[in-house]
Amino acid sequence: MRGLIVDYVGVLDGTDEDVKRWxxxxxxxxxxxxxxxxxxxxxxxxxxxxxxEWEYRGxxxxxxxxxxxxxxxxxxxxxxxxxxxxxxxxNDCVFVDDNIVNVKxxxxxxxxxxxxxxxxxxxxxxxxxxxxEGEF
Length: 136
Known about the structure:
alpha/beta
């Protein structure tokens, strides 16, 4: 696996502490050569600046918003757009979301899906897949 695609609402928009921990984990993933992206069903527009900031600040490599790409999770086209933005095939990507329907669809399309419930659990899973060490 060479790509990590993460949902925004329900995953990256948590408490200040969780946001800080996500930023550190994503930085560690990037340091390991992992391409990173946010895939959100957000419609885009001016209200999406808080999501785009993750890319502007270099925390992730790409931000894909459904309103801008013309496809929503759980459609294959949404996952494909995120993988394409990372220049990777979908089956070389991990997808993290708090919605089981989206996770199930990602697995059906060849991604490694992870259901997000709490940061600590997902962090351990991501660290194992990408061979990342550290406390986050």
